[in-house]
Amino acid sequence: MSISTGDSRHSAPKKSTTTAGGASSDTASADEPVGGVLPVKKAVRANAGRPGAGGRAGANGKGRTGASAAKANGAAKDSSDETEKSATSASATKVTSATKTTTASATKAPAKSAAAAKSASATKPKVQSALVGGQRGSALGGGKKGGRRPVTPVRVAQSRNWGPILLFVATGLVALAIVGVSVWPLIQERSKGTWQEQVAAIPGLINYIDPSSPSFDQSVTTRPHQAGDLTYPMTPPVGGPHNGYWQNCMGDVYTSEIAEEHAVHSLEHGAVWITYRPDLPQDQIDKLARRVEGREYMLMSPYPNQDSPISLQAWGYQLKVDNADDSRIDDFISALRLNASQEEGAACSGGITEATPTPLDFGEGMS
Questions:
Q1: What is the bridge-based pairing of β-strands 131-132 and 135-136?
Q2: For the chain: N or C, fewer Cβ within 10 A?
Q3: Quick one: which of 14, 85, 79, 6 has its CA closest to 40?
Q4: What count of Cα atoms within 13 Å lies in the side-chain half-sphere of residue 29?
Q5: How confident is the model at residue 151 (pLDDT cuts 50, 70, 90)?
Q6: Which CATH architecture group holds 206-336?
């Protein structure tokens, strides 16, 4: 007997059997598709066991009994379908689990590679970003698609430590000043030419040693040592015979007359001897003294009866002036001190320091 449980389009004919209790069961599979489409299952309530079910069957007759049986068969079919679905779901779950296991295994290696890459990226220096012009910029690139503009480096102005620099500059300037003070006189001397040229340029200077000069005197070309008083052709004398002992000429300023025989010996060693008349005003004497005091190869003393207020002597040269402010005095000293020496390297120290008008006889004396 065939029982229909629904639309014939979705169900295939089923065979049914009747059990001892009068109930029927389907032997065909409920999940077999018809035309490739699974049947639509409808809920069928089972009337078995409900109170009053038998009475209703009597009233409706045979048709109701068939409907109840169909409902029971539908319920059994639903139960069978649920069982098959559970089995199918379990199988699908196993397959899914296997797939997940395979996928997890396959992704372990890439995950490790991603972790290594992430670790390497973490070691790289991070580039800080800054807001440029109100928009977020990037130090790696610009653009409107999320890119960030490069950060312009901010140059921090550092204050310069000027202390060591100023000290270095000051030290350099001091050193240059010292060198300049030492070298400048030499530069000036060289710019003036040789000492002979400088002497020739001094107005009023008398040259007794140059044979071509109108004032040449043969006596100054001889230099013997002689004891006792000596007579010279010029006053004060500038050369010729002299005493064997020289007058000390280490910047000595004598306030009394000295023996000219000792003074001429000092000229032979390269000294400049300044003489003045005793009536010269004191301020003029002081100005002359400032040119002599403490200066090697210089000496100064009064000389009575000289024909000019002030006279300067070097071996073979003489200059007579009226005033201590005369600039030629300095020119004479600069050109002839040491340069006019007849004994190069002879000393001015160790000489006679006494101021006496007559020479002291100590024998032949020194050189």
A1: antiparallel
A2: N
A3: 6
A4: 8
A5: confident
A6: 3-Layer(aba) Sandwich (3.40)
Higher pLDDT, 60 or 333: 333
| Whole-number Cα distances in Å, 103 to 90, 96, 111, 153 | 19, 10, 12, 48
Question: Band of the pLDDT at 289, cuts 50, 70, 90?
Answer: very high
Assess whether pLDDT exceeds 60 at residue 256. yes
CA distances from 1 to 15, 41, 76, 182, 225 (A): 7, 21, 17, 146, 182
pLDDT winner (highest mean) among 80-84, 126-130, 255-259, 358-362: 255-259
Helix axes 53-60 and 62-123, enclosed angle (nearest 10):
120
Q: CA-CA distance, 271 to 287, in Å (whole number)?
A: 19
Whole-number Å distance between alpha carbons of 140 and 128: 10
Query: Is 167 strand, coil or helix?
Result: helix
CB 311, CB 236: distance < 8 Å: yes
Q: What is the pLDDT of residues 326-365, one digit of tens each?
A: 999 999 999 999 999 999 999 999 999 999 999 987 665 5
- Virtual CA dihedral for 337, 254, 229, 231, nearest 10 degrees? 50
For position 185, what pLDDT does the model report? 72
Give the Cα separation of 164 and 169 in Å (integer): 9
Q: Is 77 exposed, middle or buried (0-12, 13-18, 19+ CB in 10 A)?
A: buried
Burial (0-12, 13-18, 19+ Cβ within 10 Å), 45 = exposed
Whether the predicted pLDDT of 16 surpasses 70: no
Q: What is the mean pLDDT of residues 68-93?
A: 49
SS (H, E, C) 312-336: EEECCEEEEECCCCCCHHHHHHHHH
The secondary structure of residue 272, as a DSSP letter, is E
Q: Which residues pair with 273 in a beta bridge?
A: 299, 313
Question: Which amino acid, residue 310?
Answer: I
SS3 290: helix
Q: Where in the chain is the domain with CATH 3.40.30?
A: 206-336
How wide is the angle at C-alpha 351 spanned by C-alphas 326 and 353, nearest 5°? Answer: 75
